Amino acid sequence: MLREDQLSLNIPAATKPRVVIVGGGFGGLNLAKKLSNKDFQVVMFDRQNYHGFWPLLYQVATAGLEPDAIAEPLRKIFGSDDYQDFHFRLVKVKGIDPTTKTVHTLIGDMHYDYLVVATGTKSNYFGNDQIKKYSFPLKQIPDALNLRSQLLQSFEQASMTKNPEIRQSLLNIVIVGGGPTGVELAGALAEMRQHVLPTDYPGLDFSQMNIYLVEGLDRVLPPMSAEASVKTKKYLEEMDIIIKLNTLVESYDGNVATLKNGDQIRTQTLIWAAGVSGALIDGMPQESVERGRILVNQYNQVQGVEDVYAIGDIALMKSEEFPKGHPGVAQPAIQQGQLLAKNLDRLVRNEPLEPFKYFDKGSLAIIGRNRAVADLPGNKTIGGFFAWAIWLFVHIAYLVGFRNKLVVVSNWLYRFFTYERGTRLIIRPFVRKGDRVKRKFFDQYDTDA
To answer: Which positions are annotated as active-site residues?
Structure first.
């Protein structure tokens, strides 16, 4: 590998206004698509070379999909002649300097005419370093692969251990956070427990496998309607998932999860889906940040600086309808990216800007086969098969790339008729730092050992 001082951004001088986008998520992707056909040079920085469809990460973690089914290379997306003045660089942004209009990266600096921060969110552990060290987040594809390996390794070891207490801790899975990620993950694990794992491990009694869903508030799916929460709780209980509401996890040392009420759960797998915070960039003025997000006006302009914008989950746009900002889902990011492209075009043409108005297309969550909930426009809530069918259609529609749509549809059809999850592969054994027992177990497969 080349050293950082041997590399450079190597981007041609701009003859048009340069828009630098930090982040290739839903917001950054839609902005770049709309901008690249206009009179701008577009430069995108990201630490990964693909756009991921994160609502399906839990299916990668539970062996339902391969990671490349929910991701598309950014260079492929922007590879046509329509994007001749689009430039992508796989690089980490260290910070920004709004006074000199400069973005600092690990391999050099870049001047911008307009900067758009679309970095999304990261897991929020609320200052608990112990939980951060030992729990499993689910924010990126590597997280999903680590979790998949952890789950499968736990079942393999449970099938061989003679100690009933250790076996039970391997079969106990704790999911912290009752939002969409936690609920969908719990449902997927429950279906694996019922239809897949007993065949794979005939010597194990999977009636002893406990799936805990721990939520600090008084209901599951807090972002959705009360009716959707009630339906979801009913579905989860039908699938024998242990729900603990009004409950917080105080600590987790890799073996025991201790709850605020003093209860303890012995588990080797604690999945953290309890909260997120904005993935902030150094250099943003302190007065422009509130509650871990960047304050923006109705045009997505960052408050207190010029020619800097923020879109998607990182942006905090307050309004009478959304006093705490828009929900952290894909639609606000998509709509803000598309509108900002139009507004930047208006800006260089000295035309008035159009304020952002969020069109809420509804919210969805799936719990399992024929079990889903949907909050639709007009304050309508449905559940069951029709909500499940809507969830399938929407998620296929928003996948990027025809191949990905085809792969996901074929996987879902195959699984619908067979319940089979075909990607139960431990390709890269996950060994938590300091876990000597697990390290010793997997050393037998290390050809370099």
So the answer is: 184
pLDDT of res. 433: 61
Burial 61-90 (b: 16+ CB within 10 A, else e): bbbbbbbebbbbbbeebbeeeebebbbbbe
Residue 444 has pLDDT above 60, yes or no: no
* Residue 438 predicted with pLDDT over 70: no
Domains of the chain: 4-47+91-123+277-348 (3.50.50.60), 129-274+362-436 (3.50.50.100)
pLDDT at 6: 72
Strand partners, 437: none
Ramachandran assignment for 263, one of left (phi > 0), alpha (psi -120 to 50 degrees), beta (any other) = beta
Q: In what order do the strands lie in the sheet with 380-383?
A: 363-368, 371-376, 380-383
Residue 50 — pLDDT band, cuts 50, 70, 90?
very high
Per-residue pLDDT tens digits for 2-41: 777 677 899 999 889 999 999 999 999 999 999 976 789 9
Residue with tokens 């304020």, as numbered in its chain: 355
List the structure tokens of 393.
């259609």
Assess contact for 135 and 175: CB atoms under 8 A: no
